[in-house]
Amino acid sequence: MSISVSATRWISILTIVTAFSGCATATALRDARRAEERQDYDLAVVEYTRALQRDPDSMNARTGLQRARMRASQDHFTRARRFAATGNLEQAAAEYKVAAELNPDNPVIQQEFIATQNQIRTKVPISRDGKTQLEALVERMRDQPLPGLAIPADPLPDELNFRNAASDVVIRALAQMANVNVVFDPAFRPQPINIDIRNQTFEQALRAITGSTQAFYRVTAPRTITIIPDTPAKRREYEQELVRTFYLSNADVKETMDLLRIVIDARRIGAIAGTNAITITDTAERVNAAGRL
């Protein structure tokens, strides 16, 4: 039985690819072991994971990864206890969380993580009616329009004409006239438009532009709008979120932000420059959870 030249060449290519793959796996394993020797167990987890991705059947990579995860988890657990002992509960909670992710089957880590979260909650001042400051703010502001989150109603110049202009360029130009900041969703794609604007406000013009270019907008911060592609997925993404601005009378802004990041896993939270206030953009569940702390 003879093997064709092309088949022989293919076998040679497969051999080379296999050799390179084996070499890459061996390199990752070597780097992982060196990291273990330096007691850099986080890096060891990364390298063993890389080796296992390249060779899912490697027992050395699999057992090494399990060992490194346990040791890395113990390191983070130890650091968490040190932070907790010095009263740095936010850092302790962050370390406990990493330790739990590395070793989710350890009940002690989970218990310490939950206990630390509860300690953080008790740091929030309670008012006479039994509500935390954030809870009282949520209740008070839930059905009220948010200050600053409205598009200015000032009219634009009497007459504006745009011909074959990109929609993002037109929106930016109008926003500059209205002194409004514009953010474009990463999925937004501009479209060419022709539009005549006569005796309109910025909001009226914006509705006309977005309505004719398969887009919509949301007011996401004071004097700031976000332009979004009008798709069912984007509608769900933006319409299921709430934007709430909380004006804090006594609480420290940074401490409150750290608290919300740790306890309710809030990610889009920021301070408003020049004020003792924070803005949370998140699901209704998480925004309301902020009030139950």
Please, could you describe this protein's structure?
By secondary structure, this protein is of the alpha+beta class. It has 3 domains: about 5-120, Tetratricopeptide repeat domain (Serine Threonine Protein Phosphatase 5, Tetratricopeptide repeat, Alpha Horseshoe); about 135-145 and about 240-290; about 160-235, Phage tail protein beta-alpha-beta fold. Helix content is about 55%, strand content about 15%. The protein contains 11 helices and 8 strands. It has helices spanning about 5-35, 40-55, 60-85, 90-100, 105-120, 135-140, 165-180, 200-210, 230-240, 255-265, 285-290, and strands at about 160-165, 180-185, 190-200, 215-220, 225-230, 240-245, 270, 275-285. The model is unreliable at about 1-20 and about 140-150 (pLDDT under 50).
Distance between the termini: 77 Å
Helicity range? 55-70%
* Mean pLDDT metric: 76
Number of domains: 3
- The total beta strand count reads 8
How large, in whole angstroms, is the Cα Rg?
28 Å
**Portion in beta strands:** 15-25%
Q: Supply the CATH class of the largest domain.
A: Mainly Alpha
Q: Can you tell me the CATH topology of the largest domain?
A: Serine Threonine Protein Phosphatase 5, Tetratricopeptide repeat
Overall outline: elongated
Largest beta sheet, briefly?
Answer: 3 strands, mixed
Structural class: alpha+beta
Q: What string, H for helix and E for strand, traces the elements in order?
A: HHHHHHEHEEHEEHEHEEH
Uncertain segments are: 1-21, 141-148
CATH superfamily of the largest domain: Tetratricopeptide repeat domain
List the strand order in the largest sheet: 2-5-4
Q: DSSP helix count?
A: 11
